[in-house]
Write a structure and sequence with these properties.
The chain is built from 14 helices and 8 strands. It has 364 residues and is an alpha/beta fold. It folds into 4 domains: 136 residues, no CATH class; 43 residues; 69 residues, no CATH class; 53 residues. A hairpin with a 7-residue loop joins strand 3 and strand 4.
């Protein structure tokens, strides 16, 4: 097989199917024909090709998928597809900014380079249901809404049940760096009940995934929206954070403490975003939630000093400046040099105790 052109990414699904010996099926062949299933002969050890370990680990889970794949490529308007809800990517979270590069590529080429995957839905609200290619569908839809209705969505039809569609979409999503851990985690949490009867070990086997990896994703999927909102963004929440939190959230009391602290952190994050400040990073959010679960009080802000040479702090404990002089003869002299941008009200609130202390100390 000739290597793909330099600089172009190949579909992981296409590579996987080719590695299993699945030939392209003629378009004239009926979709349900048993002849559509590839006939593969066993290979001896000397003649067996060497494939990347990623593909080898998934050979079993792709076996059934590869036997049902057909490749008629068609052109569709985005409105002819509904979005299959079993895909990991949250369609509602897609924006022009997240898809800008892809939109430019599709506009330049007049088509999506890599075909999306659809299946027929005879009784559905639209003729087809999109299984793989959510960003490509969103991007073509955006182009249609912005004076490029001539661009069609290139699609490949496959015949799959929901479980097969889930596995196929999961294989593709593992290749996509912009699918967040949280999107995958919530998708897995739905799938384990919907397709595997709640048996996590069976799901891990079907996905050719280590059980510990799957369990960590499922823990992430179980985090509440309140806890997720405490992090700087949905994309910043990783399976490793859920794994750290899990041992500390086993009881109702611990869970309540985590939820309460998460609400407080979320308010802080909102204030920081409003001021254009850097949000609290994910690792520190996780540390605070764990401390809260243990019942540990957060460190109290350092007391604002009122004597010469002492450091001034904001109410949140951030260094603000110094008291240079504080005497009856020379009065109160301050320097203000915050480590990060602060609004005027925050600075005035931090200065008030030092000014009040200096004034009343001289009148006592």
């Amino acid at each position: 097989m000739a290597p793909p052109p330099k600089g172009k990414r190949r579909s992981l699904l296409a590579d996987a199917i080719e590695s299993l010996g699945s030939p392209a099926t003629p378009d004239a062949l009926p979709l349900e024909s048993p002849e559509a299933a590839p006939q593969t002969a066993p290979l001896d050890e000397d003649s067996a090709p060497t494939h990347p370990s990623f593909l080898a680990r998934r050979a079993q889970s792709l076996g059934e998928v590869s036997r049902t794949v057909k490749r008629p490529t068609i052109r569709l308007a985005p409105s002819e597809c509904t979005i299959w809800p079993g895909n990991a990517r949250d369609y509602a979270d897609l924006t022009f900014e997240r898809c800008e590069t892809l939109i430019a590529s599709i506009q330049e080429e007049g088509r999506n380079r890599e075909a999306v995957v659809v299946r027929r839905t005879p009784d559905g609200p639209a003729p087809y249901e999109l299984i793989v290619g959510t960003r490509r569908h969103w991007s073509v839809s955006w182009l249609h809404a912005n004076h490029h209705s001539q661009i069609e969505l290139i699609a490949r039809i496959e015949t799959l049940d929901d479980e097969g569609a889930f596995r196929l979409a999961d294989i593709e999503n593992r290749e996509r760096e912009d699918v967040t851990d949280l999107e995958r985690a919530r998708n897995y949490l739905h799938a384990v009940e919907a397709y595997y009867g709640g048996v996590r070990a069976r799901m891990a086997q079907r996905l050719a995934m280590p059980q510990t990896t799957l369990y960590n994703f499922l823990r992430l999927g179980e985090l509440s929206d309140t806890v997720i909102a405490a992090f700087p963004s949905k994309a910043a929440v990783k399976a490793v954070h859920a794994n750290r939190l899990a041992p500390h959230a086993k009881g109702d009391l611990e869970q309540a403490r985590i939820e309460a602290e998460a609400e407080a952190i979320a308010r802080e994050q909102a204030a920081l975003r409003a001021n254009g400040d850097k949000p609290i990073e994910a690792a520190k959010v996780c540390d605070r939630l764990i401390r809260a679960a243990k019942g540990s009080a957060p460190a109290a802000p350092r007391k604002k000093a009122d004597k010469s040479g002492a450091t001034l702090f904001t109410n949140s404990g951030e260094p603000l400046g110094q008291i240079v002089k504080n005497s009856a003869k020379s009065g109160l002299t301050l320097t203000i040099n915050p480590a990060s941008p602060l609004d005027v009200e925050t600075i005035l609130e931090a200065l008030r105790p030092a000014i009040m202390a200096a004034k009343f100390a001289k009148n006592s």
